[in-house]
Structure formats: C-alpha cells, structure tokens
Design a protein that fits this description.
heterodimer, A: alpha/beta, Pyruvate-ferredoxin Oxidoreductase, domain 3, Rossmann fold, 7-stranded mixed sheet, about 20% strand, B: alpha/beta, two-stranded antiparallel ribbon
Chain lengths: ~625, ~300
C-alpha cells in the first residue's frame, strides 16, 4: 500500500502541488468500466510487465455473467515485496463511467487517488476523503486515434497514464504491446501505440502525485513467469505427460480446455469437446483405461454430473485427473464469482463408499505443481484425483519463479509388457495398490481381465459375496491411508505454538498469510496452516492443533446447519477438537485481510485469551 | 502419441508365431442369461468371427454399459470393460481415439442405446468414431424384470404400464440414420448367418458402425420377434438388392416399413473418421512445431509468458 505520508499529504490537498517520485513498496490499482472496454487487457499488461521487472503481482477481476457489456473490474496489486493478496483497499481507482464511480468509490481508501474520465463522470464535489483527478479520457483518446475507435483505445490511453504515474518501463511495455497485437495488423498497432503515447504524454504529474517502486533489496533476482491459474493447470497437465483430455464448456473452467485443445496436438495428444459432462468424464476414463492418463475438468454444476463416473473410477481403480474450478453454488449459482463450497462433493460426492484423492492449490504457482502431483498420485495409486481450484485463482495473474521444465516434464508410455501368469487387475496387495493392464498387453497364461464398476474379485469377475465386498472396500480405502502416511508432515506459517491458528485452503492462503504478518507485526501470536492435501490429510495436523488456544478455519462457504464450514466440519470430525471454529463468508468475493482479522477479534473477545485487540 | 502407435507393435507376439486359437480359447465366464435368450446367439457369433479372423486376444476390446446384454464382456476372454448405464459409447470414444490398433466393440441393449445413453450414441455417431456398436434390442427392460423400454410397442403390458404402454416408441433405425452413423444395419438373433454377415461388414467399416439386432427376451417378452422369424411363420425380408446404400431418404423409407420391416444394411457412407481427423491435427501441429519435444514446447511457451 502506498505509505501514509502520501495519504496525509493528499488529505490536506486543497490546492497543494503534486509530489513526484515518491518511493513505494506496492500499489493497489482498480480499473472499473464495462466488460468491452478492454480493462482486462490493461491489467494483463501491468501484470506481465511486473513479472518481467522482478516485481510481485496479484490481480483480481470480475467479469459479468452476461455475454457482452455490463460492469466489470480489474484490480492489480504490484509490488517489490511479497504480494500475498489482491489488496483490501484501493490506492488508485480509475473509473470510466458514472456507474463505475458510484459502485467502486467506497473501495478507495482514505487518502487514495481517484482518476475519472471527466467526459463521463461527475464525482461528488468538495469531498476531502480522497484526491479526485479528472482526465478527459474519452476526448483525449478520440483526439489521438480518431473518432470511431474511441471505445477501443481508452484502455491503452489509461495504460499510458499509469505508466507515467508509476514510472513503468515504457520500452518493455511497448515491446509487449507490439508482440500482443502483432496478429491484428498494422492499423491496430498504430492505434494502440497512439493511444498509449497520448496517455503517457498527458503529463498526469501536473495534476497528481507520481511514484516509483523501490528497488528490491534482499530479493534474489529470479526469472519469473506470469500467468493465471487456469493456464498454470493446463501447462501443468502438459508437463505431467497428460495427452488426452475431454470436457464440456462451463465458466470458469473453459479456458483450460481451450488451451489444451490448441496445445495437445503439438504434444501428440488431443482434447475432445464432449456432448456433455457425463460423456467428458466417460471419454477420459476410456483414454486412461487405454493406457494414457487422462484429464477432465469442470466447474460446480459439472462436478455434480461427473460424480456418476467418478464413482466408477473409484470402483474400477482408474487413474484420472479431474479439475474443478469452483464457483458460487448450488445449481447454476454465481457462475463468475468465487466460492469454496465444493469441498464436500469433491471428498464425498457420489453414492457408496468411494474414497478418492482431493488436492487444493493455494496460488497460481501451486496450480502448476498440484496438477503435476495429481497426475503422479493418480498413476501411483490407480485413483481419480480431484484438483479443487476456484474462480479467484483461475482468473488472477501472478508472477512466479520459472519452473525447471526439463526436470519436471514427464513422459507417460503405457506398459504393454506381457503380464502373468495369474495376473490380477485388482490384486489385494498389502498397500492396496494394484494397476490394471492396458488393452494390447499379452497375458502369458491366456486369461484376459475385465475392469468393472460392479463389485468384483481380484481378477475382475463380478463377486457379491459378503467377505469379498468387505475386502475390496477396505482395499480401496487402505491405499489412500498408505498415501496419507507418505505425505509430507504439515507445517505452519509462523511458530508451531501460540494463541491463534488460522487454517485455510486454496485461494485463501494469500490473504490468510498477510493477516498473520499483519497480526504478528502488531505483536499478536498468530500462525497459519494451509491444507493443500484435503483428502487424505497430511500427518502432523493433530499435534499442531494442540499447540493453539484458538483455531479458526477461514473459508469462502457457509457456516452450515451446525455452525461449521466444509473444511472445519471435516477437521472437527477427524480430530474431535472443539476449539475448531469457522470464519466464513458467502459474498462471492475473495477474503480481505481485514475480514479475517475482524473475524478473530469478534470471536475471541469473550474468551480468556482474547486476540488481536491491538490490530 | 497416437501418431506413434506403431510403437505398440513392439511387445506384440507375431501372429504367425502363435498357434491358431479356437472358440474355447475365447470363452470366459458362464453367461448369466436366461435359457433361450437371443443374446447367446450374438455372443456365439462374436466368438465365431474372432476365431475366423484370428484377431489376437489382446487386440479385442469389448465395452458395455448396463443391462442383460451388457454383461457381454465378462463372457469373452479378451479385454473387457463393464462401464456405466448408457455411457459405453463415450468410454469407447476415449479408447478408440487413443488406440487405433484395437478392435473395439460396444455391446448394449435398447435402454442403454435409446434411453439413458441416447444422446451419447448420437454424438459418437456424428463424430464417426471408429467402433462397432451392437444394440441387442429386446423391446423390454429385462435385468430389472419387465418394465417398459423406449422400443416397447404401444399397448405392451409391463410392470410400469400394467394397462399397456401409452408412450410412442422410438424407431431405432430412423434414430440411427438421423444420428449420422456411417454404417447402419439391422438383423435378428435367430438368424445367425445374417448376424455374422452384418457383424463382419460392420467390423470392416472404417467409422462408426451400428447394428440393431432384434434379440428376444424369452422371460419377459417371449415371441416378440416371431413375426420376423421364418421358423415361426414370420417374414424375414432382406433389404432389396437395388437399395442404394448411400440413399438416406431410401434408408428412412425402409425404416418406416411397419414391423417386422427389413433386415440388412440400410445405410453406409465413407466419411472421414474422428480418429483420422484428430490424427491429422496432430500431424499438422507437429509439422508446424518441427516435431519439438514436450520439454522444448513448454520451454518456448513459458519463455513467451515470462
């Protein structure tokens, strides 16, 4: 956040001169307009530029669920320190329309800067809370590139303004613009650069402060890559050796299938757009059976449909990776908002006892590595693995360290070596793990296996004998217990003992860590635990829980009939620890740091060990 | 990947090195069907065809949904999958696209094909995914003990229609012609030679081939197909010799003939399979990227995003 001195100076701004070149660590910029204004493009360029200039970045966006038009925002937090969340309060708000101003002015912090299109917006007069800077964005863009293109160029004009305001690396930015718009032809590039230069040349420094990001001090220069969470999952799948995928379009999952449809043929594979969600997972089961680990994916409503075949994959012990990009539910719910309310269906959805592996990536970088790990577990444990990501991670850009692709990239070649004699696809091994043979594999004793969703004996023949079902149910459960014992021990963020433990999963990790940092800076005893392995759970969690007076699970879902969110209920069932309580929210928005801290204060104020009185 | 499927030959035992197998080598579990069930005939002909063609066991893959006829894979000593009710076609699509080296058969009943899996069949057909789908149509739900099926004729008395079926039944052949399948035939399990002829033609067809095989349920709908069985005094009318197989309208006319209708191949066309079209996408993409390895491709992508 821009430091307080700036805030103070602007508070008393009357006619005072703007200050220039003030050094800041990070800044939260929110762009508010309509979805066709290309504000996502501004945010995307800022994020990529940050990645290339060794800054951390996190973005947050909303897209209307309507097909075209409708209000839309893009928030970028750029910084030279570690950026953990998209930021609670906005330092710089750019509004294109009156409705953008009306809807978002309350997110601007006290002492922040409002930049508004003076051709379209009339801000509240004579207020002292923030500094209002009018720029005739529409008029200036029209002047720069001509009348007809005004709606198209405004985003580039604003990008120019911001580049001037934050002293961004203009040559790098121009190179990125040239490369991005190359395929659109010379006219478009000319307009893009024209609008950008008009914004940069507007000299916003005459009317407001300008800033410089601090040069990173102790930070080791690293090569960074910038992408959103869905890209990280798609490229993670390619690196994992997945060569077949099938899916059905649904927001916000679709961009993963779009990337894979375009990319997989280069890798000798394919992605099939299926007729529905049931067919998509059925195709993926078929391709996995044929010897090639496969992927399917969806969002909330699609996971409901996929649970039928998910049960088959558990029963048939078929390796499979299933991506669920969570959105608000139930039913069609909130298609473009975030919620962490699919944990229960991911862990328990479907009839019968059907244990499966569930992983939840906590950041964009983690989306990449989790997909690799999901593929590994699917293959090693002959099990479906669900990756629970969410709309917030799916659509936000983060800069992260370039992975060692040569080391990580896997090649999956089916094993057609002859099997047998007495090969059993469902052998009741000590660890419960067995692997089916792909068709094409000769059996030396001439007996060929069937894989099936019926309860079966070790050879795959239908078998409903009581003792056999007991044995097979235990076998399918046991292999996940074996996986649990092999998982790394749970580790806290901060000390392993203290007053408050904040537990979270998925995209909430960032704001939770930032809350911990903030609380600890104020002298409070707060640590965090991120649950990445949702099912099975890692070893060591029980011991960690024992070390704290208060335990809160912060998750974006409802507190439920009995007062506990989905992960909180799971942990209470597992550890019988009545200290576990929830900080829940259902507004379809990512956690703000403040919401987490306020939740702790509120819920501990009656207790013997109140927390966060100072924060 | 699939373009490299010739690598799959590595572990194959050469056909010439193997002793010829016989029908008994293909027999697995004892069928659970009722005595006299029409499905026995289809199973027997499947064995006979494989024996005749000497397809190696490991290259035969039988996939089924749920129903009496869908027990099929357990009875065949080859690779088999017992999948979900109605979803055998998309499962087989995944197998077929990744493994063009296999001989892929889907077996199921009228419930699988025309009720719970109706849409899946349509899409596998229009995409022309290489496989042979044999629908053993008995006009009744047998495994669940006599409920109305999508092909039960009007007036058929079942446990769910005690006073007789009132819902207009599906005309399987019309449905299949409209689906875009590229090989469509109709046969009757009581005429094994005809079943064999249709199965062989279907297997040789490069694309989605589908056969409706009237297969009597002796338990819950005995005598349903007597009208098409010459031994029971019925008429087994073959598709007229002058019928043009590529004439879609002509095929509809055959399909609309009142029961027992015609038997034989109604429609056949050569259209690019999805298998071939996807393989071409791979070949083209690989040519464009100069056969870059996965690591090289990923490194290039990540460099662009850095």
């Amino acid at each position: 956040m821009i430091d307080e001195k700036v805030a103070d100076s602007s508070k008393s701004s009357g006619g005072q001169q703007p200050q220039h070149g003030r050094r800041i660590q990070d800044a939260v910029i929110r762009l508010a307009g309509n979805s066709q204004d290309g504000i996502q493009a501004i945010g995307g360029f800022l994020a990529r530029l940050a990645g290339r200039t060794d800054k951390d970045v996190m973005t947050y966006m909303t897209i209307p669920a309507t097909i075209s038009g409708g209000p839309s925002i893009y928030q970028v937090r750029l910084g030279t320190g570690e950026v953990l969340s998209a930021g609670d309060d906005v330092d710089i708000l750019v509004t294109f329309y009156q409705h953008s101003y009306n809807d978002h002015i309350n997110t601007l912090r006290d002492g922040g800067i409002l930049i508004y299109d003076s051709d379209n917006v009339q801000p509240e007069p004579n207020q002292k809370r923030y500094r209002a800077v009018g720029v005739p964005i529409t008029g200036q863009t029209v002047e720069a590139i001509g009348g007809t293109a005004k709606d198209k160029g405004k985003n580039m004009f604003v990008l120019g303004l911001l580049a001037r305001m934050f002293d961004l690396d203009v040559p790098k930015l121009e190179t990125m613009l040239q490369a991005y718009y190359k395929s659109k032809g010379d006219d478009v590039i000319r307009n893009v650069i024209g609008a950008f230069n008009a914004g940069y040349g507007y000299d916003i420094g005459k009317v407001t402060d300008t800033f410089e990001f601090e040069v990173p001090g102790n930070k080791i220069a690293r090569k960074q890559v910038v992408m959103d969470g869905n890209q990280a999952i798609a490229y993670g799948a390619l690196a994992a050796g997945i060569r077949f995928g099938a899916g059905y379009p649904i927001t916000p999952w679709s961009s993963i299938m779009e990337i894979l449809r375009a990319e997989l043929p280069k890798y000798g594979g394919m992605f099939v757009q299926a007729e529905d969600e049931l067919a998509a997972i059925a195709m993926a089961c078929g391709a996995s059976y044929s010897g090639y680990l496969s992927l399917t994916g969806t969002s909330g409503p699609g996971l409901s449909l996929k649970t039928e075949a998910l049960g088959w994959a558990v029963m048939a012990e078929m390796p499979l990776v299933i991506i669920d990009v969570q959105r608000g539910g139930p039913s069609t719910g909130l298609p473009t908002s975030v919620e962490q309310s699919d944990l229960n269906i991911a862990c328990f959805g479907g009839h019968g006892d059907s244990p499966r592996i569930v992983l939840a990536p906590a950041s964009v970088e983690d989306c990449f590595y989790t997909t690799l790990e999901a593929a590994k577990f699917a293959r090693e444990y002959s099990s479906p693995v669900i990756v629970l990501t969410d709309q917030a991670i799916a659509t936000r850009f983060e800069a992260w360290e370039m992975p060692d692709l040569a080391k990580l990239t896997q090649d999956i070649t089916p094993n057609f070596a002859p099997r047998g004699p007495s090969y059993k696809p469902y052998e009741n091994t000590t660890d419960g793990i067995a692997h089916h043979a792909p068709p094409g594999t000769p059996m030396v004793d001439g007996k060929y296996p069937v894989v099936t969703g019926l309860e079966h004996d070790e050879a795959g023949h239908p078998a409903s004998r009581p003792a056999n079902h007991v044995m097979m149910v235990a076998k399918r459960r046991r292999k996940l217990q074996v996986l649990a014992s092999r998982l790394p021990k749970a580790e806290t963020y901060g000390p392993t003992e203290g007053n408050v433990l904040l537990i979270g999963w998925g995209s909430s990790q960032g704001p939770i860590r930032e809350a911990v940092d903030k609380a600890r800076a104020a002298g409070e005893s707060v640590s965090a635990l991120n649950i990445r392995y949702i099912q099975p759970l890692q070893p060591g969690i029980g011991e960690i829980l024992d070390g704290f007076n208060h335990i809160f699970v912060a998750e974006i879902n409802d507190e439920g009939l009995y007062g506990y969110g989905q992960l909180a209920a799971l942990l209470r069932a597992r550890f019988c620890n009545d200290k576990i309580r929830g900080i829940n929210k259902t507004d379809g928005l990512p956690f703000k740091v403040r919401e987490i801290l306020n939740g702790i204060t509120e819920k501990t104020k009656q207790s013997a060990e109140p927390a966060l009185a100072n924060v | 990947m699939i373009a490299e499927s010739k690598n799959l030959q590595v572990n194959e035992i050469k056909l010439t090195d193997r002793p010829k197998y016989t029908r008994k080598d293909l027999v697995a579990d004892q069928p659970t069907w009722c005595p006299g069930c029409g499905d026995f005939s289809v199973l027997s002909i499947y064995f006979k065809m494989m024996e005749k063609l000497q397809i190696p066991h490991e290259k035969i893959t039988s996939i089924a949904g749920i129903g009496c006829s869908s027990r099929f894979p357990y009875f065949v000593n080859a690779y088999g999958v017992h999948f979900l009710h109605g979803r055998a076609a998309p499962f087989a699509t995944g197998v077929s696209l990744m493994r063009p080296d296999l001989h892929l058969f889907v077996f199921g009943g009228d419930g699988d094909a025309f009720s719970i899996g109706g849409n899946h069949l349509n899409h596998a057909a229009r995409k022309n995914v290489k496989m042979t789908y044999v629908i053993m149509d008995n006009f009744v739900y047998g495994l669940t003990k006599k409920q109305t099926s999508p092909t039960s004729p009007l007036g058929f008395k079942s446990k769910t229609d005690p006073t007789g079926a009132i819902d207009h039944p599906i005309n399987p052949m019309k449905q299949l012609i409209a689906s875009g399948a590229t090989f469509i035939a109709r046969t009757h399990s009581h005429l094994p030679n005809h079943v064999m002829e249709m199965m062989e033609k279907a297997m040789q067809h490069d694309g989605f081939s589908v056969i409706e095989c009237l297969s009597e349920c002796t338990e819950f709908y005995p005598g349903a197909f007597d009208a098409a069985n010459p031994r029971k005094g019925g008429a087994f009318n073959l598709v007229p010799a002058d019928h043009d197989l590529t004439d879609e309208i002509g095929a509809y006319k055959l399909a609309m003939t009142p029961f027992p209708g015609y038997f034989g191949v109604f429609y056949q066309e050569q259209r690019a399979t999805k298998n071939a079209l996807e393989a071409k996408l791979i070949t083209d993409a690989k040519a464009k990227t100069e056969n870059a390895t996965p690591v090289e491709l990923l490194q290039k992508t990540f460099a662009r995003l850095s």
